[in-house]
Amino acid sequence: MKDLFSSFDLQGLSLPNRMVLSPMTRTRATEDDVPTDLMGDYYVQRASAGLLITECTQVSDQAHGIIRAPGIHRQDQIDGWRKITERVHAAGGRIYCQIWHCGRVAHPDMRGGAEPVGPSPLAATGDFYLPRGRVDFPVPRQLDASEIPAIIACFSTATRNAREAGFDGVELHGANGYLQDQFLRDGSNKRNDDYGGSVENRARLILETTQAMIEAWSADRVGVRLSPSSALYGMEDSNPLATFGYVVRALDTMRIGYVHLCEPNAKMLDSGRTPIVNVAETFRPLTSAPLMINTGFDKLKGNAVIADGHADLVSFGVPFIANPDLPERFRRDAPLNKPDPSTFYGEGPRGYTDYPALSQ
Ligand SMILES: Cc1cc2nc3c(=O)[nH]c(=O)nc-3n(C[C@H](O)[C@H](O)[C@H](O)COP(=O)(O)O)c2cc1C
After folding, report:
1. Which residues are CB-neighbours of 253 under 8 A, at least 6 positions away?
2. Residue identifier of the C-alpha nearest atom 10 of ligand 1
3. CA proximity to 93, closest of 15, 8, 10
């Protein structure tokens, strides 16, 4: 029977196991968004995963929404990432770059005054922190349809840059309330042009972005992440099953390399507002692409979702933050280190590269 420890052929890329490092922002790039050697240490420590997916990485200055998040639109950033991919490969790992545009989830104070942009003039909700403390999200400037081709072109260039930097593939961050998700869901998209209204129109940006990424590399090297049950940053949709069902089917016809889906987190489940409870099971029949599932998994649940055939791969977020050797710990049923949320978005090695491996 297949489980987390079974190998997997990801479109010709041979994964020794099915445990994936989930993409996670750790704010350890330089102040001008260049990947650092410390980030290389972090990824190398986790290279025993079947696949590593990087933190979200902005495709342009406009796409930048998190202080000290890395970019992949300048040569110094490409060079920084190349050092990391070379080290991961030398350690026996495989690594994809998650590429990203923050859309309305940003603040002018961290962007040289540039206002955030979005599908409609509706502010995100939730917590956003600047060095001076918590701030509200501003109302974004509504993007004109004429601006969209240039945004898509940034994803195309970022894909080519990721290839040049030595990544094994790219993942489009279509989840968690960022630009492509903002266009997709009708709670944040009130447009009445070709990018709003019907589900076909709302899905246009994410599908056109994916197509551009495919043309910049190839379909089997492009994954797409979606979070049908996430309410992060005030996201909502009147019919998530129809909206995400349409996108998952369309991505399938584009023959993408994998689809990466998030289950609702414990908070969503507790709230009773979860639109779709079993995301993997719901969407599995709609796609022939390899399905990666995430959120709230441990060894037992991960093995079960693979054995049941609802997913091919399981990505782990917080468990991998605290346990650089998570696959080995799962294999041996060893105790897990406890994560410290106060250092998730910190600076320096504390809470980043100082979690001990079993061998230590
Ligand atoms: C510190 C932190 C940063 C995150 N950053 C990202 C990100 O950059 N991109 C993304 O798609 N998800 C991001 N996430 C969500 C995780 O990838 C994952 O979906 C979430 O932690 C749930 O998985 P888990 O239950 O295995 O931790 C982040 C989560 C955490 C805890």
Report:
1. none
2. 23
3. 15
Q: What are the residues whose beta carbons fall under 8 Å from the beta carbon of 300, sequence distance 6 or more?
A: none
What CATH number is associated with residue 146? 3.20.20.70
Q: Kindly report the protein residue whose alpha carbon is nearest to atom 28 of ligand 1.
A: 24
**What's the number of domains the chain is made of?**
1
Q: Which atom of ligand 1 is nearest to the CA of 345?
A: 1
pTM of the model: 0.98
**pLDDT tens, position by position, 114-167:** 899 999 999 999 988 888 889 999 999 999 999 999 999 999 999 999 999 999
Q: Looking at the annotation, which residues are catalytic?
A: 178
Ligand 1 centroid to 194 CA: how many Å?
31
Q: Which of 18, 22, 99, 269 to mutate to test the pocket of ligand 1 (most atoms within 8 A of CB)?
A: 22
Query: Which protein residue has the closest C-alpha to ligand 1 atom 29?
Result: 24
* 60-88 per-position pLDDT tens digit: 999 999 999 999 999 999 999 999 999 99
Any domain includes 89: yes
The whole domain housing 55 covers: 8-343
Cα dist from 83 to 101, 171, 217, 315, whole Å: 24, 19, 21, 24
